[in-house]
Amino acid sequence: MSFQHKLLQQMTSIGQSLERLSPNPPRSHNFSNATAFLWHGDSLTFTDIKQVWAIPLTLLKGISSQKQTLLDNTKRFSEGYPANNALLWGARGMGKSSLVKAVHAELQNNTAGAKKSGTAKAGFPCPKLVEIHREDIESLPACLSILKKSADRFILYCDDLSFDDADTSYKSLKAVLEGGLEGKPENVLFYATSNRRHLMPRDMIENERSTAIHPSESVEEKVSLSDRFGLWIGFHNCSQQDYLDMVQGYARYFGLDTENIGADAIEWAATRGARSGRVGWQFIQDKAGKQKKRLPL
Questions:
Q1: Is the pTM of this model over 0.70?
Q2: What is the mean pLDDT of each successive set of 10 residues along the chain, which is 297 residues long?
Q3: Are residues 268 and 193 in the same domain?
């Protein structure tokens, strides 16, 4: 066997090994079977979500301005007009994640109702919801490469987004939000929720300020991630009256017995050491269970 033939065999073997090691290219997906999907970064695939757990928009109390801001932004996007990526940040349990899902459900229901009544207008499709987990952020470019080929419009949603020390995946997100040379796909909007306004822990930012050679530049690189979101929607701790409005709204909607419900709800919040929409919902679940009522959501 000649030297050239042996060399060709070795090169072929190396090439085959590299092909086996390389990740599979992302596959296309049929988005007509559902209105919501879950992205899997390891396999670069989507899973259809047949039913999204969403609280009706009217039941979200104490966040009226936040509701209107996100709803208006999403409506503009669904109608083909310019809209901003949104960061919903602030107090725990005050409806950040619930609002994203409720706005999506509201638009889907409105579209379905218009089609049923024959009043639907031709134009852009109602956005579909795609959830991406925090640990899959680095696979965002692959996800977008599939979504941008679709005729549908998408809200790409990441819940509880934040970054810790030594985590550099935020750099990938920065590039994606700006779109790079290709530009952000026109049919994709990015919504994220976080307890942190700048998506970074304060001590991480302060550490950069104190140890970096050019502290202002290091800090700017990290806080500039939030600047990529055109909308900052803040959520704050609720008052006792807002908390009671939430509880009473849930109780009326689900037909629960409301006798002494205010006093019971206050006692429940005291045992949890907090008042929020999440605490109110947990109280309603407890109340419904005791009254042998189902919560059809």
A1: yes
A2: 67 64 66 95 94 93 96 96 94 95 94 76 84 91 93 95 71 70 83 82 51 51 74 94 96 94 96 94 96 88
A3: no
SS (H, E, C) 250-282: HHHHCCCCCCCHHHHHHHHHHHHCCCCHHHHHH
Asked if residue 285 and residue 184 are part of one domain, the reply reads no
Q: Write down the pLDDT at residue 214.
A: 45
Sequence-distant (6+) residues with CB within 8 A of 225 are 163, 170, 173, 174, 177, 198, 199, 200
What range defines the domain where residue 213 resides? 31-235
Q: How far apart are CA 228 and CA 220, in angstroms?
A: 12
Q: For the chain, first and last CA: distance in Å?
A: 72
Count H helices and E strands in the chain, helices first.
10, 7
| Token pair recorded at residue 131 | 């959830």
| Domain count across the chain | 2
**pLDDT attached to residue 130:** 97
Rg (CA), the chain: 24
Quick one: 157 and 246 in the same domain?
Answer: no
Cβ count within 10 A of residue 243: 25
Strand pairing class (128-132; 86-90) = unpaired
- Residue 60 and residue 192 in one domain: yes
